[in-house]
Design brief:
With 440 residues, the protein is mainly beta. It has helices at 363-370, 403-410, 433-436, and strands at residues 65-71, 75-77, 82-91, 96-99, 104-107, 117-120, 125-129, 136-140, 165-169, 183-184, 196-197, 207-215, 220-222, 225-226, 230-233, 240-247, 254-257, 264-269, 276-279, 285-292, 301-304, 314-322, 334-337, 342-350, 358-360, 374-382, 394-396, 411-414. This is Multidrug transporter.
Length: 440
């Protein structure tokens, strides 16, 4: 995990603006590049010009539409055109952004304050319901993918950091320094409320995010800091997140900053940092999820404890982590630190080298393990060459626990993946870029 930072944020000239109140309903504008008012397509239908539908998104194909700045009224991104993120695009509190199945959104290049990202602010909602045959795709402006396609031909999973990523912010509890109930994403001024995350509502609902592929992100926004593929800050259990993949992100695939959301069927493919990362007393359950390590990946799993006195206990259940034995600079099974607490169970690990480890980094994590606050159940591991016992993979760097000796009580060596009885159900990922590029 690298600390989340969005620096030098500025609201650019707005491509989508407006107000929506009970007394002032939306009206058709016929020229703003979104579907609103009585329009039946994008800038067409209703009181606008007739739609020439082509089956893609209910409107006429009129080229790319660039989005930038603050979106202040309910809006729909349709699948019959390419949508381009220029800088930070923020969905304001009280506003819902709908994204049709099969829609392609491309982020412009840029670093620092110019990095492109979609931010669903606290109190806003996302309604992104893709399907297995029509996933919603976030990618780089450099990707030659076009309307109606699910993949381009000029980029692959090794093209990283070409734009930012997606940030989903909610009102569920977090644990941060000083024990504040709300945090502020660094770099956004304190009076800009869309930068806040966290609160006191564990059931908070930030919308639906299903069958979404996020590719080639992780733009540098500060020294040693990149944007995660999907960042979830204080996201509540009322939010639906499932069937989401992150491909070739320079930073983490998924990072959870507190919150209680219960996602399933997540896939992180060949990122530049961690696959699944939890922080700030994240207290939800992650089920049926996969990490595929690459040659520059760091940890398959990174587990950080709470930063304040508020505690929470996560669960990961049904996890498969594919290692990359060619990764000589990292690629560890997992890194647990800063007084980690929670449960990992029904986990399958395979494809690692003899030098890669599952490790504790600090005394607080060791203490929580010894006291039963950090638990492991039903691991299966395909042992790498040179390793003869599962205990050799587990390393408590503090030397304060019996982790390595205990490994035989919760981890079993198996000969190959075909012998596995735990881990993720890979049939849930047949729709993904990763599967279609022979990742597993």
């Amino acid at each position: 995990m690298r600390k989340l930072l969005i620096s030098g944020f500025a609201i650019f000239t707005l491509a989508i603006t407006g107000c929506s109140t009970e007394d002032a309903p939306q009206v058709a504008t016929c020229s703003d590049g979104i579907k609103n008012g009585d329009e039946t397509g994008v800038d067409c239908g209703g009181s606008c010009v007739p739609c020439n539908t082509n089956g893609g998104g209910g409107g006429n194909e009129t080229g790319d539409v660039t989005l930038t700045g603050l979106i202040t009224k309910d809006s729909t991104l349709t699948s019959n055109r390419i949508w381009v993120l220029s800088g930070k695009v923020v969905i304001d509190s009280g506003v819902e952004l709908t994204i049709e199945p099969g829609t392609i959104i491309k982020g412009k290049e840029g670093t620092g304050s110019l990095a492109s990202a979609l931010i669903i602010s606290r109190g806003a909602k996302i309604n992104a319901q893709g399907t297995s045959s029509k996933p919603i795709i976030f990618t780089s402006i450099n990707d030659n993918i076009t309307v109606g396609q699910t993949t381009g031909t000029n980029l692959d999973e090794n093209d990283r950091g070409l734009w930012g990523g997606v940030l989903l912010l909610g009102k569920a509890p977090i644990s941060i320094e000083g024990d504040a109930t709300e945090g502020q994403i660094e770099g956004i001024p304190a009076d800009d409320t869309f930068g806040r995350y966290g609160g006191t509502d564990p059931q908070d609902n930030s919308g639906i995010f299903q069958y979404v592929s996020i590719r080639h992100g992780g733009a540098l926004i500060g020294e040693g800091n990149e944007i995660n593929g999907l960042s979830l800050g204080g996201v509540g259990s009322g939010t639906t997140v499932d069937h989401v993949e992150v491909v070739g992100n320079l930073d983490d695939g998924f990072e959870f900053f507190g919150g209680t959301v219960n996602p399933s069927s997540l896939l992180a493919y060949k990122g530049g940092d961690d696959g699944l990362d939890v922080d700030q007393a994240y207290s939800g359950t992650i089920t049926n999820s996969v990490v595929v390590q690459g040659p520059i990946s760091d940890h398959g799993l990174e587990i950080d404890g709470p930063e304040g006195t508020a505690t929470g206990s996560f669960t990961m259940d049904g996890i498969t982590v594919f290692g990359d034995a060619t990764n000589t600079g990292g690629g560890a099974y997992a890194d647990l630190r800063d007084s980690s607490m929670g449960t990992i169970k029904n986990a399958l690990f395979l494809g690692f080298s003899a030098t890669q480890e599952f490790k504790f980094k600090d005394a607080g994590t060791s203490e929580n393990y010894t006291n039963g606050v950090l638990n492991f159940e039903n691991f299966e591991i395909v042992l790498p060459g040179g390793i003869t016992a599962v205990g050799d993979i587990f390393n408590d760097t503090s030397g304060l626990s019996t982790l390595s000796a205990d490994a035989a009580t919760f981890a079993t060596a198996i000969p190959d993946a075909g012998s596995a009885t735990v881990g993720a159900d890979l049939s849930e990922f047949t729709w993904t870029y990763a599967k279609n590029h022979n990742a597993f």
